[in-house]
Amino acid sequence: MEKTGEPSGRDFWWVCTAENWTMIDVCTLDPFPATQKSISGESRTTDDTICIEKAVTYLLPNDEKENERLDIHHALVMTIMDNKLFLAPIKNPKRAIDLCTGSGIWAVEFADMFPGCGVIGNDLSPTQPSLVPPNLQFIVDDVESDWLYEDTPFDFIHARYLAEAIRDMPRLLRQAYNCTKPGGWVEFHDWDTHPYSTDGSLKGTDLEHYYEVVLAAFIKQGYYTQPGKHLEKWFTDAGFVNIHVKKYRVPLGTWAKGEKNKLMGAYNLLQFDEAIEGGAMAVMTRYEGWAPQEVQILTSKARSDSRRSDVHVLFNITLLHSPSPFS
After folding, report:
1. How far is CA 97 from CA 120, 137, 160, 290, 295, in A?
2. Which of 25, 123, 318, 324 has a 20 to 30 A CA-CA distance from 252?
3. Minimal CA–CA distance to 155: which of 323, 18, 327?
4. Does residue 119 contact residue 104 with C-beta atoms inside 8 Å?
5. d(CA 56, CA 225)
6. Domains and CATH numbers, the chain
7. What does UniProt give as the signal peptide span (predicted)?
8. Is the dihedral of CA 142, 128, 5, 42 positive or negative?
9. pLDDT in tens, 88-147
């Protein structure tokens, strides 16, 4: 397939629909559609295949299995947050966006909660459901490109789980700051994906080895693997001043004491089990020279360790929200 014509700046996206490459003018997008549409302007069908060029080089899965895992991750974060969809004290938002929406589950629940709010969920791939609230629109977009929302800012910008997916988080936060209404809120939740144990039980395991080699590969390609630990600094550097931070330790598996810890650990182990092979396959085979069979052996050994009751693995997650200054 050949592309004809050249896009003028960031006003256009290259889009592949069926057999043809075309340029889509993003300024024609309806921010509050009456019906769910694809970015082509036509109703989405399961036969449509639309992709941005960058999606080809994306290193994490973006298929139906990954959407199922992201729904499990949503249940995990809801457990961490005591079944709250967000922490910011928003009351009557009119315009909101969910960055890198994934399966779209958060955006759907938010749109249901605020039917008078125009909600956008963006992602590199159009894998979200088509039956959604009428005030919700999913669009294909790359959040690391220049944003076009300065003239139509948001009351609420939400993002979570961008580890290993974003190369320039400080720039992303600056763009979020510039596209939030005065008094609006920005909320990010993210992980430090480097596991640890307080009793030394992780040391020397195949699970530790998995994370050592896979995270090193992502770092070599310029991705953040510990965004959670840097969020507060990035928010401050972007211009936010009234920053609310909550930090949690989340177990992998049900070894930790306490009902909430066991539930978090169960969800975490379930989503980890779904992610472990797909999360390593692309980066290790494309950039580290591994054969697929080698990745499968690595992940099989790590999966076995993850289920051991004597290996007490923890991950840190940071939940942060801040208002945009009025001035």
Report:
1. 5, 10, 12, 38, 36
2. 123
3. 323
4. no
5. 21
6. 61-323 (3.40.50.150)
7. none
8. negative
9. 999 999 999 999 999 999 999 999 999 999 999 999 888 898 899 999 999 999 999 999
Three-state helix/strand/coil letters over the chain: CCCCCCCCHHHEEEEEECCEEEEEEHHHCCCCCCCCCCCCCCCCCCCCCEECHHHHHCCCCCCHHHHHHHHHHHHHHHHHCCCCCCCCCCCCCCEEEEECCCCCHHHHHHHHHCCCCEEEEEECCCCCCCCCCCCEEEEECCCCCCCCCCCCCEEEEEEECCCCCCCCHHHHHHHHHHCEEEEEEEEEEEEEEEEECCCCCCCCCHHHHHHHHHHHHHHHCCCCCCHHHHHHHHHHHHCCCCCEEEEEEEECCCCCCCHHHHHHHHHHHHHHHHHCCHHHHHHHHHHCCCCHHHHHHHHHHHHHHHCCCCCCCEEEEEEEEEECCCC
Q: Tokens at residue 244, please? A: 């609310």
Per-residue pLDDT, 57 = 53
Distance CA 325, CA 156 (A): 13
37-52 per-position pLDDT tens digit:
333 333 333 333 333 4
In tens, the pLDDT along 263-317 reads 999 999 999 999 999 999 999 999 999 999 999 999 999 999 999 999 999 999 9
Q: Distance between CA atoms of 112 and 134, rounded to whole angstroms? A: 9
